[in-house]
Write a structure and sequence with these properties.
mainly beta, 11% helix, Thrombin, subunit H, four-stranded antiparallel beta sheet, 134 residues
Length: 134
């Protein structure tokens, strides 16, 4: 009997929860696949994807502005360690860095594998994940 009451209570409580309410779909203005997004505050963020797409928003994602770093690649991940320093990795092994809030990007690649994921613990310690070229 206790199990039945517990199950009924759980079902009633689960029906009252509305996780992730308030999400609104936004149009990126591109048809390229986008894989990663990073916001440094509630208004300013970037997303990256295939065909060298780097998009920036300064209004919380309402509109996205394309940015061309002159390194066309299939980008997989973007992160910022603070409001100025950002990193992007590409499937090809390309790694880009910005020191001015994403206005300019420069190549810091080691190009020894396929890169998919990027994470920084702080401004000087970071990890990349992926595999090796065959």
């Amino acid at each position: 009997m206790k199990k039945i009451i517990l199950i009924i209570s759980f079902i009633c409580l689960a029906n009252c929860c509305h996780s992730q309410s308030g999400w609104v779909q936004q149009n990126s203005g591109t048809t390229a696949n986008l894989y990663s997004v990073k916001f440094i505050n509630s208004q300013t963020g970037w997303c990256v994807g295939d065909s060298g797409k780097i998009l920036k928003t300064t209004n919380g994602g309402i509109s996205w502005i394309p940015s061309l770093p002159n390194y066309p690649a299939n980008y997989r991940s973007i992160t910022f360690t603070n409001s100025n320093i950002g990193y992007i990795i590409a499937y090809s092994g390309l790694m880009l860095k910005s020191t001015n809030m994403g206005l300019n990007w420069f190549d810091i690649s080691f190009r020894n594998g396929v890169l998919n994921s990027l994470f920084f613990v702080n401004d000087s310690i970071g990890f990349v994940g992926g595999g090796y070229f065959v």
